[in-house]
Amino acid sequence: MLDSSLPSLSEPTATLAAGTVLLHRGDVVDRIVHVMQGRVVLGVMGHGDMAHQLGVVEGPFWLEAASGLMDLPHVVDAVAETEVQVQYVRVPDFVAQVRALPEASQTLLMDMARSQRQQTELAVSRLAKDADARCAEWLLRHAEPVDLSGSLAVKLTERKRTIAAQLGIAPETFSRVLRHLRDRQLISGGGRVLGLPNPQALRELAGV
């Protein structure tokens, strides 16, 4: 697997004070932060403080490496809880190191990155969003084009009880939210296929 130090990159290190914001949720990933020493709090910030905490990690640890590998923005905020020593690695250099691995290792690493990203997105959604926003985000994530016009629809391949559990809400709440979204003309249809007539409004509701 990928060596935690990546000595071949020869990247400089920096020592940062406790309270330093290391990652901003939603920012484009242009470099990956390797925490060599110290503790970092992960979560969702609000008004300058960590409003919702997901957990604490301790170096050596790669912060949001999955986002860099998948070319996606940061999904969490990260703040140094103690003084930390970090190493910044350019995304192209990091990706090059991954591509130098055997194919089986690359496949395993990317599968793990996708799984980690999905789990983190779900955890952040449960922390920071209400039931309506979570449902809107879920619908957008599972939407597929249905014709050449670009219209979107979602096929409910799982029971509503299972989907509700994924969203961290009660089945009754999930049904209520779907009725609410239908009343607002944000979803259409019924049964196992839901149309999304206004994806932009859903994105605004979901905060994505």
Description:
- By secondary structure, the protein is an alpha+beta fold.
- The chain has helices at about 65-70, 90-100, 105-130, 130-140, 160-165, 170-185, 200-205, and strands at about 15, 20-25, 30-35, 40-45, 50-60, 60-65, 75-80, 85-90, 145, 150-155, 195.
- The strands form 3 sheets. The protein has a 4-stranded antiparallel beta sheet with strand order 1-8-3-6. A 4-stranded antiparallel beta sheet has the order 2-7-4-5.
- Strand 9 (about 145) and strand 10 form a beta hairpin.
- The radius of gyration is 20 Å and the shape is globular.
- It starts with 12 loop residues before the first strand and ends with a helix.
What is the β-strand count?
A: 11
Task: Report the biggest beta sheet as strand number plus sense, adding barrel if it closes.
Answer: 4 strands, antiparallel
Structural class: alpha+beta
Q: What does the radius of gyration come to?
A: 20 Å
Distance between the termini: 33 Å
Average pLDDT value?
Answer: 87
Strand order of the largest sheet: 1-8-3-6
Q: Give the proportion of residues in helices.
A: 25-40%
Give the overall shape, derived from the CA principal axes. globular
Low-confidence stretches: 1-8
Strand content: 25-35%
What oligomeric state do these chains adopt? single chain
SS element count, helices: 7
What string gives the helices and strands in order? EEEEEEHEEHHHEEHHEH
Features:
208 residues; alpha+beta; 4-stranded antiparallel sheet; 39% helix; globular
